[in-house]
Protein: Aminotransferase
Organism: Romboutsia hominis
Amino acid sequence: MKYSQRVSAMQSSPIRKLVPYALDAKSRGIKVYHLNIGQPDIKTPKGFFEAVKNFDSNVLEYAVSNGIPELIKSLQDYYTTYDMHFDKDEILITNGGSEAILFTLMAICDPGDNIIVPEPFYTNYNGFSQCINVEVNPITTKAERGFHLPSKEEITSRINSKTKGILLSNPGNPTGTVYTKEEIDMIGKIAIENNLWIIADEVYREFVYDGLSYTSFGNVKEIEDRVVIIDSVSKRYSACGARIGSIASKNKGLIAQILKLCQGRLCVPTLEQIGSVELYKTPTSYFKEVNEEYRRRRDVLYNELMKVDGVVCKKPTGAFYIVAKLPVENAEDFVIWMLKDFNKDNETVMVCPAEGFYSTEGLGRDEIRLAYILNEDDLLKAASILKEGLEKYVELKKSQLSSADA
Amino acid sequence: MKYSQRVSAMQSSPIRKLVPYALDAKSRGIKVYHLNIGQPDIKTPKGFFEAVKNFDSNVLEYAVSNGIPELIKSLQDYYTTYDMHFDKDEILITNGGSEAILFTLMAICDPGDNIIVPEPFYTNYNGFSQCINVEVNPITTKAERGFHLPSKEEITSRINSKTKGILLSNPGNPTGTVYTKEEIDMIGKIAIENNLWIIADEVYREFVYDGLSYTSFGNVKEIEDRVVIIDSVSKRYSACGARIGSIASKNKGLIAQILKLCQGRLCVPTLEQIGSVELYKTPTSYFKEVNEEYRRRRDVLYNELMKVDGVVCKKPTGAFYIVAKLPVENAEDFVIWMLKDFNKDNETVMVCPAEGFYSTEGLGRDEIRLAYILNEDDLLKAASILKEGLEKYVELKKSQLSSADA
């Protein structure tokens, strides 16, 4: 039996494909610190669970396709705190940010069309695109420049007649980069001049450090008819398992188009929506605490990485990821080595090779992504193990090279 | 700003597009009996809610992409009662049956490919196909024959080089038809001879009446490498709002392909999966009761319909729908008339025009779908109102016609 080309061509998750090595290490009694996945350990606000537990109907009925009115209201109020103002028919609730991105791409691209995406990017952007025959058209950003955007000319040179939009995450996964107001305005100009949509994945909106000011694409009046804001409760409220995302756009026509896709899948789970109403009512003091926690973790991990000769990375200012260029040839080989051949007092660390976050062949082979989602003590330990492992691995490769020379 | 052709071309839900007329009737103080939607009133088994309420982690984490092991186990056990035996890597949990169908179509069809579907069909089959550029290739079934399948020759004549599979629901939505063992075997033979997949949407498996024996496509050994079984808790356990569906196939290669799509959207909601573990443990006595309840409802509705001159429909033997051919020219006009211009003691009935369940232009214009999802008393009332309305409408059209003649 034959499978479709579009799905056959998809890569398996680069984040998950090395999991067997971790399982094997664990089976040998080794403790593995996971810096490879974006599953936070922060508590989910209790309001979510309380609302779910208070559900008292006998029948778990379909919800409306666009999302329950209470959740849309709750989201409208949340956006207001960022000076974004959406009518209720400008918001759709989705099955996670994932469905929000998939549906938006479907609604703006036909097969063969492409989307400009700064790389390294969230790897599933590629997957969503491939399964609906849309091409990711990458613009490369670099560790040395803290993964900030290249010049307007460089970006514009990638645009062709099949380009329908620009998709980017801000703060960035996997880079942790927060775009400046100038970068946001530049993207806005490019979009206007080339009649492109902007899909702004802002699921890490709250995770901005060092007092940096944050500009949402939803704050730029001139582009409001072409901006689609993607959100999710997953990282924001440490509620990854709720799978509640959303699409917001002042372009009511686009929302009406996407609503047809929402009607096709009938609805998003009723209980998860009821719980999420409460999440979006969480007081902003929650973010201050969480933010401070992540900021400390970032510093721990970054400072330790910087102690290793040859590691290149600017201190990221958002989300909870670091992409670092390592003094190694093949980061995947290093990641596997850490799990297979290294441990310190029976403990080791798992990180994620970054090659899967690029679509340009060969890029990112010497880079890794680290997620700082452990508590400070564990993270300190993990960072020190990683540092030691990396130094040893670099040493080992050098000695292998010189013995090959001999 | 431009939208994609694929989504622009999608029709709005034919089930939902007449809702404004119902809302208007209600605003005029008229009670509307809804026979237009498949939202059952049966109680969701309590185990679901109890399991959800007993969840006691502080963090609502991602679940694994293929589905939590407990739910897969629970589903395996359920299938065993139907003499179907799936390994754990032959099952994937999905966001409703909807995602199960969308992902399966993606994994077997590239843009321009087509899928054989008996019409009338579940309208979203069309929507799922359109948004991924797959064509529905309809084989027409008829009210006069109880919507049973046409001959092997007629079906085979529709197959071309771009045909990748046959998608059908059994028992059927919207027809309520249960395919015979002979029909299942015929489809199996056609699939083997033409190297096609069979996507068997069996979400109404339990709703079979009159002691009829039911054959699942999962019970035919010869085709097990090409059969994909779609299931869902929605109708089975009256848990439509849980959005828990599944894909099962002995073709492990296909499951591995679809798993990539599952990884892309990360996971299905954790709590809904935990609840659904209990649903699939519901004792079969539950189905006996529910089944008997639906059987009685079907009889009430069918008997009342049969009292109207010119109504054509065979008594359906499954699911909870009836498609009936009415003695009218335009069923949508009749449905709107019932909401706008008719009431009996301030009560009226909403049904669903069936044209949207066909992809062949012009078919189904004189047909409606009725869902018997109300309790017996309400249904009896609704059926009698519908009968009276229909008779009056037919009378009215006749008199309009003769006055036009005059």
User: Anything to note?
Assistant: Chain B is about 40% helix and 15% strand.
